[in-house]
Every structure is written in C-alpha cells, then in structure tokens.
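Two folds, back to back.
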Amino acid sequence: MRSSEGALFRWELVGLLWLAYFLNQADRQIFGVTLPLIRGEFHLSDTQMGLIATAFSIIFGLFVPIAGWLGDRIPRRIVVVWSLLTFSLGTLLTGLSSAFLPLLLFRGVATGIGEALYAPAANTLVAEYHTETRGRALALHQTANYTGVVAGSFLAGTIADRFGWRSSFAVFGCVGLLWAAVIWLRTRGTGAKAAVSPAQGFLLAEALAKILRTPELIAQMVGFSGLVFVLVGYLTWTPSLLVERFHLSLAQAGFQAVAGHHLLAYLGLLATGALTDRIIGHWPRVRLISMGIALVWFAPFLFVCAVTKSEVILYLALAAFGLCRGIYDAGLYAAIFDHVENRLRASVAGIIVAVSYVVASLSPLIIGGLRANYGLQAGMEVLAGGALAAGVIFLAIIFGDRRTVAA
C-alpha cells in the first residue's frame, strides 16, 4: 500500500464517502419537501407526482444488481464518482425542468440510476481499506444515511422557502458535482479496485435459487418490500401532510417529518444491534423475530399519523414509528448474512433489495391516487395496512418453519 493509502487516507476515504452518502440521501428528500411547489407551478395531479416517485423507485430497484456487478469489474472509486455525477446532474436538471416529462426523466430516471450505483461500490470500498477497523468504518459511513435524510429535508425546505423550489435542486446538484471532482482527485492513483474472479459473475441464478429454497430469505424479501413500501410513501408525502394539516412552512414540514423519526431510529438501531449480537448464540432467530415484530408495530403508529388532528401526537407517532424502524434496520443485512455463505451474500442482498424497491415503487403512486379522491389520510392508512400485512406474513413464514437455524 502506498503512503497515500496509509492509516490517515483510510479514514479520509470514509470522510469523503460520508459526504457523498449524505448527498445521496439528502438528494432523495428534495422532491418530497418541494412537492407542493412543483405541483402548484405545473398544475400536475397527485397521480402524476406519485408517478415520478414511482419511476424513481423502479429504476433504483432495477439498477441495484447492476451496480454490484459494476463494482466487481471496474475500480469502485470510479463507480462512486459516476454515481455522484449522475444523480447530481439529474438533480440539477430537475430544477431546470419546465414540464412533466422532463421531471419524470431527470428525477425519476437519471437520479434513480445515479443513486442506485452508490451503495454497493461505496460500502465495499470502505471494507477494502479497513480490516481491523472495518466495523467502525462502515458504521460511521452508515450514519450519513439518517443524517442526510434529516438535514437534507431541512436544508431543501429552507432554500425552497426563501429562493424557490428550483434553487434547492440547483444547490444540491452543484455541490454533488463538485464533490465528485474532489473524490476523483483525492482517490486518483489509489489501488481501490475489487479483485473478483470471473466465475463469480455468474452467481445470480444460484443466489435466486438460494432465496427460493430458504424460508428466512423469502420472509426478508417480504419484510423489506413492506419496509421500503412504507418508507417511500412516508418520505414522499408526509411533508405535504404537515403543510396541509398544520400549515407549516416547507422548511418546518421537511424537518418535522423526519427529525424525531430518525432520532428514535438511531436509538432503536444501536440498542437492538448490541442486544441481538449478545443473545443470537442462544436464540438464533432473534434478529428475524425482532424484525417481524417491529414491522407489525409500524401499523398503529402510522394509523395515528393518518387520523390525528394534534401536531404533538403526530410527532410522537412518527418518533415511535422511527424507533420500530431502527429495530428492523438493526437486523436488515445481518439477518441475510446469517443464512447465506460469503460467496453469495452480495448477490442475494442485491436481489432482495431490487425486488423490494420494485414492489415499493407502487407506494407513492397509490397514495397520490388516493389523495386525489380521499385525501392523504387514506394514503397513510394504506401504509399502515401494508406494514401490518408484511409483518404478519413475515412472522408467519418464520414461525411456520420449524427447522433449527444456525447463527
């Protein structure tokens, strides 16, 4: 390893990628926060607005397996740079759109492709440079996810309130393009490239077969589909719910929609991760059972969000929903890896993520259609019902399979 790739650079790399991941997640919030202004300027229907978010989710889901494949064949730093360039340019062009079709293409397609490219390459790149410190490095990188959602929502709303919705897309798009150049320059000449044998490029069929014959993995596909279905709908439409029901500004709505939720999600994630690591040797299915129960618990809190007329109660319900989300997230990839050998883990995870995002792509479209006819309350009730159904099916599969599961 060159001197530029020593201990200092390994942590610098985490910092570089942390901001990239922050931008990736913050960029995803801009559309939901500025949705009322976009809809009003272009006189678009709620169904059309939902279709844009649906297109994003479909494209994202389809490109996640491709992203993993690319990360095994070209330097991962290049994949990360292309990810930043693609979703940042898509964001910038979204702000320059003048009609529904450009919005659909730039936000739904270009941004979806760019964001899908990021996670497989970036997480593996961190792991390449960290061995003894791998867990800490990946955990630090993951904190950019929740932070990007909360801070990104607030910043996008603040900019939109003061300068218009197009300015939010312009600012984040330009910062992303600039950060792509920084990462390119700082990682140039490094040896950041995966070393994967050609035979490993043909494991998708084997990975799919593994999923289909493993009840625990089928359950996780159902559960993750339910989780993402809820999260996509929640992040797309909750700011609008707060604006309409409590007459908040876009900045206030964007922040309040995610702040308490993600604070409690942090706590649920860290506490559950530590607890399940301690007892999984004695109770091999603890991760799976905690995930299923958490998914079922989504339902009552989402239902409260749908029906309450109290701003305080709604924030408390969003926070409780966040706590359950953190409990679920604590086992998300760990529970997959509990049941999959190392050579198939990336492929299995990629398939589960892809299927889940394609299923979840229907969420904003369904809620947009319901809102047009019945109001956002009906859409939030559908999210609650979807979470409950996914959680019940998840637990039914787990408890219906009586085999002993190795930790």
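---
second:
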Amino acid sequence: MKVFKVSAAQVKKVLNPLPVPTICPNCGGAVERVSNSVIYRKEYGAWPFAYRCVVDVCDSYVGLHPKTDIPLGTLANKAVRAARKQAKSHLSPMWEVDGMDKNAVYAWLAREMGITDVNHCHIGWFDAKQCAKVVEICLNNKRNAA
C-alpha cells in the first residue's frame, strides 16, 4: 500500500472541502480510512485511498481527493453509487459532448434544483432522490431543446 502523506498544497486546491467522515450517514457505523484495495480487491489510482463504513453489510464508501484526506463526496452505499453514476451519465455530456462550460452546467443545475449556493451542487454530495431529480432535469432539458 502507498504511504498516506497529505500535501498541504493539494488541500488548498480543493474548493469545497467536506469534513473527514467519522460516522456513516447510511447506517451510523464508524468510518475508517483504507486502501481502495479493501473495496476493489486491487489497488487503483495514484492516490488509492478511501473512507469506508466498518459495517460490511452497509457497503458505503467514498474516495479521496488526490494527495489529501478530503472526501470526494459523502459516503455512498450501492444504491446511491448507482444513482450518482446515472446522474453523471446524463449531466456530463453537457460539457463533454455539447461543449458547454462545466461551471455553467453546474450553475444551471443548481438553479434547476433550487440549490442557492452553486458550491453545494455536487453529484458526489447527492442522495439517490437528488440524483433522480438530476436525471429528470436533464431529460426535460433535452426534450425542450429538441
């Protein structure tokens, strides 16, 4: 396993840092920092660390921003991870394919979802219900654009 050494410079680059989780929001279990090999059975990435709920049946985890101890989002169980993946698959093409500015896309999404602070509009922070709303908004946007 790689050595866990946080870079102060990288920490400063994270615009909207979430606190290090200590309690799982899904089951109330304790949270530990682990190599992602504990989750995937193989180490992935240059910064292979994650936070994981110690309750195995909960199956909640989240990765970390590179060279930091800052979570990429909130701990997510299997259902929330699937919902986030689906939400991203509908939202990401707006900047990856359509060429829109990513920040503008998130500003638009925040308005559509009624999130007053765009800095709090992150799919990695959303629950399954919010992710379903992202999909609905994106589908409605495509229909209205056609």
